[in-house]
Protein backbone atom coordinates (compact mmCIF):
# COMPACT_ATOMS: atom_id res chain seq x y z
CA UNK A 1 0.00 0.00 0.00
CA UNK A 2 2.89 2.33 0.75
CA UNK A 3 4.20 1.97 -2.80
CA UNK A 4 0.77 2.73 -4.28
CA UNK A 5 0.53 5.83 -2.11
CA UNK A 6 3.96 7.03 -3.23
CA UNK A 7 3.04 6.51 -6.88
CA UNK A 8 -0.20 8.48 -6.52
CA UNK A 9 1.56 11.19 -4.50
CA UNK A 10 4.19 11.54 -7.22
CA UNK A 11 1.66 11.67 -10.04
CA UNK A 12 -0.46 14.23 -8.20
CA UNK A 13 2.63 16.30 -7.41
CA UNK A 14 3.65 16.43 -11.06
CA UNK A 15 0.11 17.30 -12.17
CA UNK A 16 -0.33 20.06 -9.60
CA UNK A 17 3.14 21.58 -10.01
CA UNK A 18 2.28 21.92 -13.70
CA UNK A 19 -1.24 23.26 -13.18
CA UNK A 20 -0.27 25.53 -10.29
CA UNK A 21 2.77 26.95 -12.08
CA UNK A 22 0.70 27.73 -15.14
CA UNK A 23 -1.78 29.70 -13.04
CA UNK A 24 1.03 31.48 -11.20
CA UNK A 25 3.22 32.44 -14.13
CA UNK A 26 0.86 33.05 -17.04
CA UNK A 27 -0.95 36.34 -17.14
CA UNK A 28 -4.64 36.41 -16.35
CA UNK A 29 -5.40 37.60 -19.88
CA UNK A 30 -3.53 34.64 -21.40
CA UNK A 31 -5.37 32.22 -19.13
CA UNK A 32 -8.75 33.75 -19.99
CA UNK A 33 -7.99 33.42 -23.72
CA UNK A 34 -7.38 29.66 -23.40
CA UNK A 35 -10.62 27.80 -24.31
CA UNK A 36 -9.95 25.22 -21.57
CA UNK A 37 -9.54 27.96 -18.97
CA UNK A 38 -12.80 29.80 -19.52
CA UNK A 39 -13.48 29.59 -15.80
CA UNK A 40 -10.69 32.16 -15.27
CA UNK A 41 -13.11 34.79 -16.62
CA UNK A 42 -15.20 34.26 -13.48
CA UNK A 43 -12.36 34.95 -11.04
CA UNK A 44 -10.00 37.82 -10.32
CA UNK A 45 -6.36 37.60 -11.25
CA UNK A 46 -5.43 37.46 -7.58
CA UNK A 47 -7.72 34.54 -6.88
CA UNK A 48 -6.39 32.61 -9.88
CA UNK A 49 -2.84 33.22 -8.60
CA UNK A 50 -3.90 32.08 -5.12
CA UNK A 51 -5.34 28.86 -6.56
CA UNK A 52 -2.08 28.30 -8.45
CA UNK A 53 -0.02 28.92 -5.32
CA UNK A 54 -2.25 26.56 -3.34
CA UNK A 55 -1.91 23.82 -5.94
CA UNK A 56 1.87 24.26 -6.10
CA UNK A 57 2.27 24.25 -2.31
CA UNK A 58 0.08 21.16 -1.98
CA UNK A 59 2.14 19.41 -4.68
CA UNK A 60 5.28 20.01 -2.64
CA UNK A 61 3.48 18.95 0.51
CA UNK A 62 2.61 15.61 -1.05
CA UNK A 63 6.24 14.57 -1.47
CA UNK A 64 8.72 16.70 0.49
CA UNK A 65 7.67 15.70 4.03
CA UNK A 66 8.05 12.02 3.20
CA UNK A 67 11.38 12.54 1.47
CA UNK A 68 12.86 14.72 4.22
CA UNK A 69 11.14 13.29 7.29
CA UNK A 70 10.22 16.85 8.30
CA UNK A 71 6.59 17.45 9.37
CA UNK A 72 5.10 14.33 7.76
CA UNK A 73 1.62 15.37 8.89
CA UNK A 74 1.71 17.86 6.02
CA UNK A 75 1.29 15.09 3.42
CA UNK A 76 -2.27 14.04 4.33
CA UNK A 77 -3.14 17.69 4.97
CA UNK A 78 -1.91 18.55 1.47
CA UNK A 79 -4.15 15.76 0.18
CA UNK A 80 -7.14 17.23 2.00
CA UNK A 81 -6.33 20.68 0.65
CA UNK A 82 -6.31 19.33 -2.89
CA UNK A 83 -9.65 17.61 -2.28
CA UNK A 84 -11.11 20.99 -1.34
CA UNK A 85 -9.58 22.78 -4.34
CA UNK A 86 -10.73 20.09 -6.77
CA UNK A 87 -14.27 19.98 -5.38
CA UNK A 88 -14.35 23.75 -5.88
CA UNK A 89 -13.15 23.26 -9.45
CA UNK A 90 -15.84 20.64 -10.09
CA UNK A 91 -18.50 22.95 -8.65
CA UNK A 92 -17.28 25.80 -10.86
CA UNK A 93 -17.52 23.63 -13.98
CA UNK A 94 -21.00 22.44 -12.96
CA UNK A 95 -22.12 26.04 -12.47
CA UNK A 96 -20.78 26.86 -15.93
CA UNK A 97 -22.55 23.78 -17.41
CA UNK A 98 -19.20 22.34 -18.53
CA UNK A 99 -20.14 18.74 -17.83
CA UNK A 100 -17.12 17.12 -19.48
CA UNK A 101 -14.79 19.36 -17.46
CA UNK A 102 -16.27 18.09 -14.17
CA UNK A 103 -14.70 14.63 -14.47
CA UNK A 104 -10.97 15.48 -14.19
CA UNK A 105 -11.25 17.42 -10.92
CA UNK A 106 -13.43 14.67 -9.44
CA UNK A 107 -10.84 12.04 -10.38
CA UNK A 108 -8.03 14.18 -8.95
CA UNK A 109 -10.10 14.77 -5.83
CA UNK A 110 -10.59 11.02 -5.36
CA UNK A 111 -6.84 10.41 -5.77
CA UNK A 112 -6.03 13.16 -3.27
CA UNK A 113 -8.59 11.69 -0.83
CA UNK A 114 -6.86 8.32 -1.22
CA UNK A 115 -3.55 9.93 -0.28
CA UNK A 116 -5.08 11.74 2.70
CA UNK A 117 -6.78 8.59 4.01
CA UNK A 118 -3.75 6.44 3.26
CA UNK A 119 -1.32 8.75 5.02
CA UNK A 120 -3.60 9.48 7.98
CA UNK A 121 -4.81 5.90 8.56
CA UNK A 122 -3.27 3.14 6.46
CA UNK A 123 0.45 3.89 6.12
CA UNK A 124 1.40 7.09 7.98
CA UNK A 125 4.80 8.53 7.12
Textual characterization of the structure:
The chain has 125 residues and is mainly alpha-helical. Helices cover 77% and strands 0% of the residues. It has five helices and no strands. It has helices spanning 2-25, 28-33, 45-68, 74-95, 103-122. Helix 1 (2-25) packs antiparallel against helix 3 (45-68), helix 1 (2-25) crosses helix 5 and helix 4 runs antiparallel to helix 5 (103-122). The longest helix has 24 residues, at 2-25. The radius of gyration is 15 Å and the shape is globular. The protein starts with a helix and ends with a helix. 31% of the residues are buried.
Give a brief rundown of this model.
This protein is mostly helical and 125 residues long.
Task: Provide the fold topology.
Elements: H1 2-25, H2 28-33, H3 45-68, H4 74-95, H5 103-122
Helix pairs in contact: 1-3, 1-5, 3-4, 4-5
What characteristic shape results from the CA principal axes?
A: globular
Largest sheet: none
Number of helices: 5
Return Rg in Å: 15 Å
Q: Report the order of strands and helices.
A: HHHHH
What is the first-to-last residue Cα distance? 12 Å
Q: Average pLDDT value?
A: 96
